[in-house]
Write a structure and sequence with these properties.
Number of domains: 2
Order of helices and strands: EEHEEHEEHEEHHEHEHHHH
Low-confidence stretches: none
Enzyme class: isomerase
Strand order of the largest sheet: 1-2-3-5-7-10
Mean pLDDT: 97
EC number: 5.3.3.18
CATH class of the largest domain: Alpha Beta
Largest sheet: 6 strands, mixed
Radius of gyration: 19 Å
Number of strands: 10
CATH topology of the largest domain: 2-enoyl-CoA Hydratase, Chain A, domain 1
GO molecular function: isomerase activity
Family: Belongs to the enoyl-CoA hydratase/isomerase family.
Shape: globular
Structural class: alpha/beta
Protein name: 1,2-epoxyphenylacetyl-CoA isomerase
Distance between the termini: 28 Å
Number of helices: 10
Strand content: 15-25%
Bound molecules: ligand T3D
CATH architecture of the largest domain: Alpha-Beta Complex
Length: 257
Amino acid sequence: MFETIKYETKNHVAWIILNRPEKLNAFTEKMNMEITNSLKHASMDNDVRAIVITGEGRAFSAGQDLAEVDENMDHGEVLRSRYRPMMKQLAKCEKPVIAAVNGVAAGAGFSLALASDFRLFSEKASFVQAFIHVGLVPDSGNLYFLPKLIGNAKALELAVFGEKLKADKVKELGLATKIISEENWQSEVTKFAEQLASMPTKAIGLIKRSIQASWNMSYEEFLEQEAYNQRIAGLSEDHKEGVTAFSEKRMPEFQGK
Ligand code: T3D
């Protein structure tokens, strides 16, 4: 089905595995398209309740494949036609998306991780704002998310100097949900993803939507949006199950409906 990624589903989790390990999973046009399509597919599959994006081999992704770049390239158009659809598909996904950063994430690879909802970070991974080293500006939403996560001053510093951030620095900056040792990597990522996949999926989607909405709304507008979202959550089967389980003094069994 796909050539540059692997797509697998297990226990309600969709795994999108970037699969050009010999090029550190650098993005080609085809890969941008396949990531976009796989995210769309996972978003629409009712059986999928969490999505993991990770890389094959020693890297998460080294960003744009520089072998594809030539001097006649219109970089603005490349972003509009290839990266924007991928980042928009990710932003509108109503299921939790986990970037399992198994190794180096550079350039747009770093951006993809920033745009995800959770970042699990291997102790041997690193983040690099590689753009400046090739005379470019961080793209693919990078400078939209990074200042919100770590503040303007630190985001500017990283974007300008492009230093490699190893696990200890990533932890200090609060850029990772969790740092995971190499030996526990696969089991911990799976456990985290499967835990999310057993939670009330609709409520998680509404939480994501609320946080996104809060960036562009007045408090009054936000409170209205909140009421609208809570009405939807309140009509879900998972809400009913949560209340029933509470009154029966047992653990809820959410179905994501
Ligand atoms: O038009 C547009 O603007 C589109 C949007 C662009 C967004 C971007 O992502 S721009 C930024 C592009 N990415 C980079 O500039 C990163 C370049 N790579 C690196 O800086 C380093 O490779 C890493 C820090 C990621 C990893 O370093 P290291 O020492 O672990 O590995 P390496 O030896 O440099 O790379 C290993 C191989 O992967 C090597 O190939 P070889 O020599 O073994 O055949 C290297 O050329 C290849 N590779 C690494 N990154 C890329 C790549 N090949 C193509 N494109 C890459 N981005």
